[in-house]
Amino acid sequence: METDSILSGKNYFGSSLWKKKSEEERNEIVRILCERIDKQGKYIDEERLREIIINDWGVTDSEKADNLLDVVDKLPRGRLSLSRKAIVKLLPFMREGRLESGDPKSDALHAAGYTRPDERRWERVDFLPPLELKYRNPNKIGDEKTRKAVESLKNLPAITNPVVRQCLNEVRKLVNAIIREYGRPDLIRVELAREAKATSEQRKNIRNNNTNNQKANEEAENFILEQGYRPTFENKLRYRLWKEQGEYCPYTQKPISPAQLLGSETDIDHIIPRAQGGEDARMNKVVCFRSANEDKGNKTPWQWLSDTDPKRYEKILAAVKSLPYAKRMRFNQHEGNLDQFVNRQLNDTKYASRYVKQYLNLLYDNKDHVQCVRGNQTAALRHHWGLNNILHEDIVPDDLHEDQKNRADHRHHAVDALVIALTNAKIIQKLATWDKLNKMIISENNPLPPWPSREQFDADAAESIRAIIVSHAPQRRVRGQLHEDTNYGFVENRAPNDTRNLVRRKPLADLSASEVLCIRDQTIRNKVIDYLKEKHNIRINDKGTKMLCSNKNALKKALSQPFYLHPEEKRTIIKKVRILITQGTAVPLYPNRPNSPHIIPGKTHHIRIFEWIEKDKKGNDNLVRKVFFTTQMEVNQRLSARYRQIRRQMDELSTLHLSPEDREQKIREIRRNAEHQFPLVERTLSPEESRGHNAKFVMSLSQDETLEITEYDIDTITEENPKTTLVLYKTGAATQKQLYFSDIRSAYKKTKKKDDEQDDQDNNAEEENKDTSKEKSGKKPVERFSVSPKRIYRKVHIDILGNIHPARN
Asked: Would you tell me the crossing angle of helices 342-360 and 162-182 to the nearest 10 degrees?
């Protein structure tokens, strides 16, 4: 054992003294060194521990005794899969040469009176039970089926990973639906993700890293306490970053004092911003002055300074040369990568696939009905059977090659499922022989699909895969930003035809051509325009509504240079200006306060569609449909009011003396009333919103809600020959009056620009033009389209699957 090897070293007990100790003495020594508690439960301080080391353990060398006082930091850490009690039972049999587990007749596990987890027996269940039942007491459950399910779940280990819990819940719903429709499957196959085992050197590095992290955290905690602050996680992280950087700010090269570090003058900044896919890891973080962090914003260091201030950028690169290589390279990185979450997802898949097998075993009396297939086997068979080319027709990325899996189409998971379902021991054996021969020839060992005819297999597989309807779970949770970070001032005294209602501060160097003309201070605006005309030959059109700039970078470079309000005297540098903007969705941050700053709500949570009858100019009845956009902020306020009411009534309920049954019924009633009073989707309109008419609620749409759209307004499509498409509702842009949809089969990864388009309900025309220019440049756009609500509800027939079918005009 590693602990034995360390303590028997010459710097500690020494080999001869350590070998004289019995097994019980060794265990007690390790326990005391780690826990610092004696058999009576009293704490052992350092002075007393030294006496025990010298007098009781026989270590007379004072240097060795000093080493033993700190040896706990060098001992291996972690948890074993077996308890100390179980290890004590197993060790005598393992010393005889028996393996821990294996043949029940000869292994140490069975000799000690234990059984392997896969040998445990349980009562077979008819349907997979919810995981929440695992923590219920079976003796307090009267229902026999529920009791049986609880007893079965006791054989499963606890799940702490929320991603895995979600995965298993989806498995339960799918498998139970299959059982209800077709009965219990005779065989279930699960694909295991490919993974590599860590070598001894890798495990050693992990242990060393853990030890070093623990020491660094202890050092940080002591320093923070000395400064009079709480040793929170963030403060310890600040200290570690500060020491790593040499106690300097990497962006300004100015020293950071302890008071500044733990006060309000510094921030923890992501080198690659989270908005660009930067990971939330220490290797992507630095501690810097707050002013520098605000100037950097959601940009990489390269995006921030490479064009506007290259000399400062070179100074930053020189200042971070002492940082670890992985962190240093992030300062050179031009832009972020939105696919950084893939590695974490893969780890979750490894864990989940093993747990799914144990979970599915509850349906059967033995383990033979649930089999596992490795991911590399699935990939090889998919290639040999020619299934990579099935999805090469509908949604195809530009860089997809022949015989390459099309991951842009969600149905590629169904292709894998088909391969897994057809994989058996005979085919795996053929595949192993084929790989061993490494000959691409047709032979009896070629892993051909289990079909009489290869052509018939191709046709059947293509027909089945292409007929699949992809299932998506609607996203109704409230998560993400409730509103934008920027606070805006409200402009009350405007010109009659001026639609600009908000004002905000923005760095002069970041202004676009149109924003220069929106500087609120007329004096500053005129001087900036004159400066651009005289010094940089940047003009304005005849109407005075647009800057004429031949080079798109010329304006940015011109505004990045120091701009003086009084150029003759070279004083009063203008760094930031207030600009006027138009924003129809802004709301007061504090509605009850005068002159409250305004905020722009975050993305749309859902839309509501209402209809009513209005008289037209001729007096005829006209069906009017209108879309109302509900933001995350509005829904959050409604849910907060609901929870406040529930808590208030629960506090009142606690003062009453009720039986457990009456109490449960009262709690259900409280929750039901609160949900009715503060619903997630408001199904009524105020008289102002409905213009005084009797509005009828038609439907609501949340993100990833599945719809069937039937179009009639295209020239080649008539009511006799409609075009019907299954789509996903993505979001709605209130200011643009646009609804965004994507093909239900599409699994294209969104670019940053398109991701912002989905998450921000208030995209302006300038951003839309940038997207258009990207598409014209030849870049493959995301498979998403936008339609105005007016066009959809007058010329397109929409059905929410399984719910409501609104009539079309």
From this structure: 50
